């Protein structure tokens, strides 16, 4: 089996090399880019399996790069930020990043997150087709449609919708969803789930106006109520 290709976009070369060493020791093949303007041409030549993308870069910044990538690709993206207050924007409506890491961080945490995000993106033996009213989700082809119209979702949004459709009306806590969707148990990332759900809600509501499918159960978490046909 060929090694998974990881693109690390980080202008602090000491940090980039540490990440590269840890990932290569875990069996990945790693390419480093240190300038924002080089990222899009690189992935047009060869799309990696995952991108680790710092926000603060010379040239195009990480947010602009993420927006551009998301116009055409669902490649998993893990953002790196030095500011906690940027987290909501990182995983915000306009970006669709799959995860984030705050500086300073442990290289082992980076490896754990890469493994978790790639595991979510890799197909596994699953029930192929899920149907909920006008929503159809195919886990093998990673395709979602509403009333036969394709719906573009990021990997994290797709996994969330899959979990909800597999168990409609069940109330999931944030910890449940982090465990089932994010695939790791680091603390403090409930805002990631909240942001992904906010993104997913917006996309569903745009197709099915007036039907609130993902409901907040205050003090507990979230549940999915299948829409009417």
Walkthrough of the structure:
The structure is a single chain. With 229 residues, the protein is of the alpha/beta class. 38% of the residues lie in helices and 21% in strands. The longest helix has 18 residues, at 190-207. It is globular and about 55 Å long.
Q: Name the CATH class of the largest domain.
A: Alpha Beta
Mean pLDDT: 84
Quaternary status: single chain
Q: Mind telling me the C-alpha Rg?
A: 18 Å
Low-confidence stretches: none
Task: Compile the SSE list and pairings.
Elements: E1 5-9, H1 13-25, E2 29-33, H2 39-45, E3 50-54, H3 62-70, E4 77-81, H4 87-90, E5 99-102, H5 107-121, E6 129-132, E7 135-138, E8 143-146, E9 149-150, H6 155-166, E10 172-173, H7 174-182, H8 190-207, E11 214-217, E12 221-224
Parallel strand pairs: 1-2, 1-3, 3-4, 4-5
Antiparallel strand pairs: 6-7, 7-8, 8-9, 10-12, 11-12
Summarize the structure.
With 229 residues, the chain is α/β, with parallel strands linked by helices.
Keywords:
229 residues; alpha/beta; Rossmann fold; 2 domains; five-stranded parallel β-sheet; four-stranded antiparallel β-sheet; 12 strands
């Amino acid at each position: 089996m060929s090694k998974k290709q990881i693109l690390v976009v980080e202008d602090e070369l000491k940090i980039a090399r540490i990440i590269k060493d840890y990932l290569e020791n875990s069996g990945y093949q790693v390419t480093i880019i240190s300038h924002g303007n080089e990222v899009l041409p690189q992935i047009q030549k060869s799309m990696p399996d995952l991108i680790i993308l710092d926000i603060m870069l010379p040239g195009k910044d990480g947010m602009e790069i993420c927006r551009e990538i998301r116009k055409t690709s669902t490649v998993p993206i893990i953002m790196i930020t030095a500011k906690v207050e940027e987290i909501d924007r990182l995983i915000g409506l306009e970006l669709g990043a799959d995860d984030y890491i705050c500086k300073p961080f442990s290289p082992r945490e980076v490896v754990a997150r890469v493994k978790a995000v790639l595991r979510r993106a890799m197909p596994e033996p699953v029930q192929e087709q899920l149907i909920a009213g006008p929503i159809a989700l195919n886990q093998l082809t990673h395709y979602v449609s509403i009333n036969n119209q394709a719906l573009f979702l990021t990997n994290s949004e797709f996994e969330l919708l899959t979990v909800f459709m597999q168990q409609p009306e069940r109330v999931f806590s944030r910890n449940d969803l982090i465990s089932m969707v994010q695939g790791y148990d680091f603390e403090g990332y409930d805002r990631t789930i909240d942001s992904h759900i906010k993104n997913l809600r917006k996309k569903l509501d745009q197709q099915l106006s007036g039907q609130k499918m993902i409901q907040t159960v205050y003090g507990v978490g979230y549940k999915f109520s299948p829409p009417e046909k």
